[in-house]
Amino acid sequence: MIKKIVISLALLVVIACVGVGTWMSVPFPYQQDVAEKALVSDADMHVLSEPWLQFQPSEGNPTTGLIFYPGGKTPASVFAPLMREIAANGYLTVSVPMPLNTAFLGIDKAQEVINANPEVQRWVIAGHSLGGVGASEYVKQADEKVKGLLLYASYPASDISGLTIEVLSIYGSADQQSTPEKIKSYQDLLPSTAQYREIQGADHWQFGAYQPSLSAGVATISHQAQQSAIMRATLEFLASIEG
């Protein structure tokens, strides 16, 4: 009887894991045409699609890079347009695909990117939503080249307040997932030197190329306006890391 109970419980665990894995692998709706357009190389930008999405300006050799962890149920390409635009300002940027679209299953992926690009002298690790949680876990034992942590609508799941790393948290006043209240309630887990940038009217989904229907009736600013605000804050942070 005990053996039957143990086998039954094991089967239930397997079924639950398969169900969760299947659910996480199905992405939130996003603008696939917009994402794919950003993945085309041209005279100004060299794009690699494997084993991650890497954007490098055709001119110059960037010495500062940004590694991005997408949120849950989100392909790396959803943030390709933003990563491409950041790269156009002279940085190497990488959006990392995660197993089953889950950053917790690929927390150390950043190290693979760093090892593959030895010419880059300093890195910022970034992430949106659950991707930011994964990035926060990585920086606990990050490579010495990692100088900054950039959180988009996110916060850490555990205490990293003792780190000397530079941190910027960008979030939206209209975010119904990573609400301003949640961002503030987790501030004690970040270093006391962490900076915060609230974008008025911004929501959770306009950080990436998600379908506009997700932001309908939520965001009070346009996708373009939110992206512009994110870009300004991000570029300022990257410039500060360069010194």
Automatic annotation (TrEMBL):
Keywords: Hydrolase. Pfam families: Abhydrolase_5. Transmembrane segments: none annotated. GO terms for molecular function: hydrolase activity. It comes from the Bacteria. Residues 65-227 form the Alpha/beta hydrolase fold-5 domain. The keyword Transmembrane helix does not apply. PROSITE patterns: PROKAR_LIPOPROTEIN. This is Alpha/beta hydrolase.
